[in-house]
Write a structure and sequence with these properties.
Strand content: 15-25%
CATH topology of the largest domain: Aspartate Aminotransferase, domain 2
Family: Belongs to the trans-sulfuration enzymes family.
Number of strands: 9
Pathway: Amino-acid biosynthesis; L-cysteine biosynthesis; L-cysteine from L-homocysteine and L-serine: step 2/2
Pfam families: Cys_Met_Meta_PP
GO cellular component, one term: cytoplasm
Number of domains: 2
CATH superfamily of the largest domain: Type I PLP-dependent aspartate aminotransferase-like (Major domain)
Oligomer: single chain
Strand order of the largest sheet: 3-9-8-7-6-4-5
Bound molecules: pyridoxal-5'-phosphate
EC number: 4.4.1.1
Length: 278
């Protein structure tokens, strides 16, 4: 008999969740980061367009300036963290901005290992932008994870994987990559855009950061360009939070509001295809 917290995805593979979760996916998608508005009781947090916030006394504020944080973004980030089983969630102005911000955590002279079949925009960023800032990438076929050990260098810092890949749907074993990467002291980033946290929570499998183009399934309505990230690592989270504000590639409150609304139907939109004899 399988343990109570065994989860089985549509590919028929099951795993034991890292910890049993109190609420189901749909409940979290609808309620996480969606506390009723304290001032009015509105059950849907209102759209907050203010760019700047009044201090109750000098230095005493909840929100300060909207690039740094704002109510709609922090609500969405709470929801993303809940769905990805993370302590920290982050939203950015696109999936590409998420990639750029995370890669900015690396110092010049660092080396990255990326799955060779990575999303075209990620490949372009690594090859044309990160490379010009002194971060070199090796693109490796990680369908066979044993290839990973051969390419680790002294200055390797990070392994970037995507599974399944867009658009060729090739798979990488997140747990196996994480184990090898961690032995070598590397961080593992997983682009989880194509499965969404409904089917796969990479942090439970050992990844250090999970990222998404929320433009795709998370928002799900083809009316927002956005990216998100989530992690349980305190030090990494504080670096990403610093860079989110310092680089400033942040989404608007309206986009956050829309994406959070989109999230509420993710579990319905991810349902397995209906049998053809219906
Ligand atoms: C679309 C996509 C991105 C880039 O996201 P944008 O929101 O378009 O910037 C990154 N990774 C994957 C897997 C994607 O499909």
């Amino acid at each position: 008999m399988s343990p109570a917290n065994t989860v089985t995805n549509t590919f028929g593979t099951s795993r034991v969740a890292a910890e049993p979760h109190q609420y189901g996916f749909g409940t979290l998608a609808i309620h996480a980061g969606a506390e009723a508005d304290a001032a009015t009781g509105a059950v849907i947090p209102p759209l907050s367009l203010s760019t700047t916030f009044k201090q109750r006394a000098v230095g005493d504020f909840v929100y300060e300036y909207s690039r740094s944080d704002n109510p709609n973004r922090s609500n969405l980030e709470t929801a993303i963290a809940a769905l990805e089983h993370a302590k920290y969630g982050f939203a950015f102005s696109s999936g590409s901005a998420t990639t750029a911000t995370i890669l900015n955590t690396l110092a010049p002279g660092s080396h990255v290992i990326s799955v060779n079949d990575v999303y075209g925009g990620t490949h372009r960023y690594l090859n044309k932008v990160a490379a010009s800032m002194g971060v070199e990438t090796s693109f490796v076929d990680l369908a066979d994870v044993s290839n990973l050990r051969d390419v680790v260098r002294e200055n390797t810092r990070l392994v970037w994987i995507e599974t399944p890949t867009n658009p060729t749907l090739r798979l990488v074993d997140i747990a196996a990559v994480s184990e090898i990467a961690h032995e070598a002291g590397l961080f593992v980033v997983v682009d989880n855009t194509f499965l969404s946290p409904y089917f796969q929570t990479p942090l439970d499998l050992g990844a250090d950061i999970v990222v998404h183009s929320a433009t795709k399934y998370l928002n799900g309505h083809s009316d927002v360009v956005m990216g998100v990230a989530a992690t349980n690592n305190d030090a990494l989270a504080s670096k990403v939070r610093f860079l989110q504000n310092a680089i400033g590639a942040v989404p608007s409150p309206f986009d956050c509001y829309q994406a959070q609304r989109g999230l509420k139907t993710l579990h319905l939109r991810m349902l397995a295809p209906i049998a053809t004899d219906h």
